[in-house]
UniProtKB/TrEMBL annotation:
It is found in: Membrane. Gene3D superfamilies: Membrane associated eicosanoid/glutathione metabolism-like domain (1.20.120.550). Coiled coil: none annotated. This is MAPEG family protein. InterPro entries: MAPEG-like_dom_sf, Membr-assoc_MAPEG. Its main location: membrane. Keywords: Membrane, Transmembrane, Transmembrane helix.
Amino acid sequence: MTFELTILALAGLLHIGQFAFASYRANVDVGTEYSLGPRDHMPTQQMRPATARLMRAYDNSAVMLPLFGLAMMLIAVTDQSTMVTKSAAAIYLAARVLYTPAYALGWQPWRSVIWIVALACCALLYFAALF
């Protein structure tokens, strides 16, 4: 497996971990009755602000992962792995690792800076695939 695809696999595991952690925290906050039920109504208990931020960080990961995944697949299929693509992939993963605590802890403006770094890495990977 290429370095970039290894990073993609790690990003997928990170995504699963984010989902598990955010879901656990949400379950603690709103209770198992709501979590295990059909969710036909809003929960009677509110999530703590940090938990709500964890859920939004996960949602952001769900948006970013396909962008990154497609870029990684383009690099792998076209056999265009270089130090630039490897670096962009590693920096993307590092940024995504930092993004969740940055969001959960309300780091301003660092959360946005970290997000921009990850997005820029995705853009760089697409450019690398094209040229």
